[in-house]
Amino acid sequence: MIRYNLSCEHGHSFDAWFPGSDAFDEQAAQGQISCPFCGTPHVSKAPMAPNISMVRSRRPAQLENNQDQKTVLNMTRRIRDYIETNAEYVGDRFADEARKIHYQESEPRGVYGEATLKEVRDLHEEGIECHHLPQLPEDQN
């Protein structure tokens, strides 16, 4: 696993973990990475200081990393479970339903579903807030 500091075209800074050094480039090329603050897919690696560790402290740091990763993964699962339990799944009609709710043409409620990158960009340009649900390891099975 490798962690990169990232920033979006709007200046938001955040970090993300990737399985290897090429994974960021592959995911970015496929439009799978977006800013968690504004949703833009225009994300790049930010300058980073090298991570230098002493051999003596490697093992405890790895254990802390694994525990931190498990904690974040469990929190992500809880967020996904909450959304799936409390919001309506609208499938590929997500962009249309989000607009109807935003423009008060439909009852206010939480919805989730699928949208293309263009649909998400259009929603953001209209001032309609939406966020990407993070993928979990079990989503790949």
How big is the Rg?
A: 18 Å
Q: In sequence order, what are the helices and strands, one letter per element?
A: EEHEHEHEH
Count structural domains: 2
Largest sheet: 3 strands, antiparallel
Percentage of residues in DSSP E strands: 15-25%
Helix/strand structural class: alpha+beta
DSSP helix fraction = 25-40%
Which stretches are poorly predicted, pLDDT < 50 over at least 5 residues? none
The end-to-end distance, rounded to whole angstroms, is: 19 Å
Number of strands: 5
**Rounded average pLDDT:** 83
Shape: globular
Annotation field: number of helices: 4
Cross-sheet strand order for the largest sheet:
2-1-3
Description:
By secondary structure, this protein is an alpha+beta fold. It has two domains: 1-47; 59-128, no CATH class. 38% of the residues lie in helices and 16% in strands.
SSE blueprint:
Blueprint: E1 2-8, E2 13-18, H1 23-29, E3 43-45, H2 58-86, E4 88-91, H3 94-102, E5 111-113, H4 117-125
Parallel strand pairs: 4-5
Antiparallel strand pairs: 1-2, 1-3
